[in-house]
Amino acid sequence: MVSIPQVSVIVPAYNVSSYIEDALRSLQRQSFQEFEVLVVDDGSIDRTADVVKPYVEKDSRFRLLQKQNGGLSSARNYGIRYAYGEYIALLDGDDTYHPDKLANHVARLKRDPNVGVVYSASKAIRDDGRPTFMHLSGKPVHSNPLLALLCKNFVGHGSNAVFRRSIVDEVGEFDESLRSSEDVDFWLRISATQKWKFYRESRVLCYYRVRPSGLSFNVAQMQHYNEQVIRNAFLRSPELVEPMLPTAYAYMHRYLARLSLQGGHSEKARYFLDQALAFDKSIFYRDLRSLLTLFAVCLAPIAQPAIRRSLGSVKYMQK
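Given the sequence above, the corresponding structure tokens read:
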């Protein structure tokens, strides 16, 4: 085993026995090999731990940590506390890396001491691992990362970033009280320091799995936590954030409209779309993805079957 690994890959895992082997194999195939893997079994009730154990037995870089279920942020924090690496990489137990993911990002972090977080473009894969049409470029909508993150999570998803371990000591861990948007909150706290750069690699180096069972949207809960994250960002940087609030809320409602549409609830999608237009209608002619959401909601009878064919069935919860 490398005595002091350069990268600690944190793999939160909850009931992912059918997928986690793909994640671990993608780590074994990395062109950069000076890493450790900390799989955090967050109270799984399936065979997740049994699938991981052979990797631990055969490769001393792999470790299995087990804890009571506490949620995604809890699992990430638990793994980071046991990490030895100078850099932290996040990989959810049902996602995968391109073989050059770690090599590319570590090289950038070493090259530029002002870069704190590196991420890449990514692509969605289906439950069975086949690619979908969904591609996230990761391009921010604003030059200031804090303002950009208020509008859209340009990092994209929780498996995409590699960042300096020292940043956790500086801004704190993932907020375990948040049940969604916890990664956006973390990136916002980093950007609020006005110290660290976010670097985007335009190549697709990460693949995130869209599972039918993982597409259960409690939209009211998501709205609550999104609003909380925006409020927290305002309290940290009121003078910078306040002028951006209408646009931030417009993007939030646009996001909720898209989730509602994916959940098959076109009336709720229309409601959120109207809210977005009321806050800042300019996002629909300045941002292509927003414009596509507008068209999709207006053409819901056509759009919804296409979404189902691409991603599988979706549950929608409203409270």
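The chain is about 45% helix and 20% strand. Try to locate this feature in the token string yourself.
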